[in-house]
Specification:
Distance between the termini: 10 Å
Order of helices and strands: HHHHH
Number of strands: 0
């Protein structure tokens, strides 16, 4: 999961040469003040193969991250903040 979240961070912040729209859509829930500003919208998955696709399996964990983790300015800073978050709140 750690590797998937790191890859998601790279895609979401443009540090990976991948069009994020091919994998993710930002949530349009502007009224939701919990979490962070880069929450992802989960799409319905009717086929098992789709349920386990990278973008689907990472969404729940990504959306649970706090703002200070996703606001990291570098990959190393993201890794450190993610590890610290998991140590504090158990993962």
């Amino acid at each position: 999961m750690r590797g998937d979240l790191i890859e998601t961070y790279k895609i979401m912040t443009g540090k990976e040469a991948v069009n994020r729209k091919h994998f993710f859509q930002l949530s349009s829930c502007e009224y939701n003040l919990r979490g962070h500003s880069m929450k992802l919208r989960k799409q319905r998955a009717s086929l098992d193969v789709w349920k386990f696709f990278f973008s689907q399996r990472v969404m729940k964990e990504w959306n649970l991250l706090p703002q200070d983790v996703v606001d990291a300015t570098s990959v190393n800073q993201f890794k450190n903040r993610l590890d610290n978050f998991w140590q504090r709140y158990g993962h």
